[in-house]
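Record pair follows.
FIRST:
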Amino acid sequence: MSQTDAKRIVRAAAVQIAPDLTGRAGTIERVLNAIADAAEKGADLIVFPETFVPYYPYFSFVLPPIQQGPEHMRLYEEAVVVPSPETQAVADAALKRGVVIVLGVNERDKGSLFNTQLIFDADGSLALKRRKITPTYHERMIWGQGDGAGLKVVETKLGRIGALACWEHYNPLARYALMAQHEEIHVGHFPGSLVGPIFGEQIEVTMRHHALEAGAFVVNATGWLTEEQIVSISPDPKLQKGLRDGCMTCIISPEGRHVVPPLTEGEGILIADLDMALVTKRKRMMDSVGHYARPELLHLVHDARPAQPVHRIEAPADLIATPEPEAEDV
């Protein structure tokens, strides 16, 4: 990090709002409004929750598989194609405001859905599209698996940014793959309004630990459901308990401390200034992929090739038989 970088301040915004459970158009409108709100507060980086567009598939947590068909099909219809008018609208907002945006979407790719994280740089370009490598528990009924190509830190206007979704943070090798690429800001996001209070507690532990281990800032956003939305997902009071709490929108320093108090209920936007000099301050003491690493003893093998269902092997040109010329008529 140069002297100029050492004096760099990044204003981060972590957004905790409710999606529009009726479809992507309403949720995209909420995204664009939140971008404008955060940008007016001076934000350079704006982070949204997991698969926020059109909405996290909360139904899959409380409905048995045999009853999920209609809601799963509706999610297919409302999911986001990349690129699309929806992603272009977010890219345009990033360019207009000069901000970096990290947005979670349900991505539709032909016959499959994926839990996808999109990083838009401040020039409106899509710096990264990555897919959650392993959907968790009930999510395996909904999404396909990502690949190692998405375990990538990207250089943005604000510095080096990496991202993981939800329980990917419990895969230490996935986290190490990003740490080894020297991420300065790590973005996490979770669904929120799920499981109960213990989920929020676990998120806090996980985010603070990653910040310490990576020597990076962590900006994490979780979603929120209103009481009306919870009732619309399930009328059963017992199942509704699984759709409350579990929120921990937070911004953590490389020293593992909250930069501002976390947001654990309701809607809101956390704003905090990140003093990037703290990255070097932490790594001077413990750089887990540098002077504190022992790669000759322990190292990670990361297959960064995109997963392909077909690997076509063409015959070399010199082995392709040349047809014999037809005999001329006598």
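SECOND:
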Amino acid sequence: MSVSHKVVQVAFCGLLSVAGLILVKLAVPGLSRSPVSAVAAGAVVPSGRIRFAVLGDSDSQSYHDTLMLGAPGDRGGARRATTWQWTEVLARLRGDEIDLGEWGAWGTGKYRAIFDETLGLLARTPPKDDYRYNFAVSGATCNQLMGHPLREAIRLVALMNTEPQSWQDGIVLIRIGVNDIGAHDVLDELSRDRNASRPRALVNGCIEAIGEAVALIRKHHPNTYVVLVGVLSNADWSAEFGNWQSAKEIANIDAGMDLFDNGLRKLASADRYVYFLDDRAWFRSLWGARDDQGRPLYRTVHLSPCWAITNTSGDDPHNAVVSDGHAGVVWNTLWAQHLLMSLNIAFNLHIKPISDAEVISFLQPSFAAGAQSAPSILQNVSGN
């Protein structure tokens, strides 16, 4: 064999070895350790605030991201400047007690993220403007908690591992699943048969993926709390009001959502550091549900004489949902209020509750055309 052929053979074998190392590292979460330089670059002096991370989909990605969410009609359209997502509400109203991480441009393309991981560097994808500990990405499905390209849970835990002490009594909230089981075709299958095999398989896949994410977090950070948020029913979304107008169809859809939520309840019941938050129950407590025949019959939420919020879609804050199908500013603000109350009860925390007066004050810029003054007592009034 000539010298040149030997050189080529050695180089080829070297490439195979590197490729094999890459595959092993990507297959085993936590195998690669971040180098000191990567840790130092992300080091933050503990502030006494509660670290708070998020895994999920567009229900939790910040609305004021312009890297990924750059279309003019996104998240409030012309009213986007005062249309806030729930993590943004928390940062503004309780940023002195809750640490969501620095706001900035985080993440790279998916191939760069894979390359960074092979070098032991911190990684995340896609690039977006958000809080550092918010790994939620629009369009994410349950398998993206552990699988490529997002690997949300794996990459969050890698970041948490750089400052383990700071995550003592911290919180990781997981809110995902609606992209798996909330699509129209999935709900339509459920409406005809609550035991349909495909929806059931999707639910089981989600519970398995969420369970793996919880186990990973709890293994590396045994004193970090985990919140599992139940799935909402897209049958309550105004775009679907013309569908499934029978009691049986809605009951079948609800049974599918119950299967998902009960899976999360089971995960939470096995660990005192894990808490299940029933999102559908919260929604019903405000806007109600369809009637006994499956027809839309939702209540109106009144925050003041001029602030009547209906379960409709539109970028005006009088709608519960913005035009692109995501929660509006009122929904997100009330949800943030409910979340803090729930966390205090579940984990015996002492975060200052968000008062009704603060809700009104925070929402005033969003209702610029509303009444000049608003009462400080939040009211939920039945009837349209």
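COMMENT: The longest strand covers residues 50-56.
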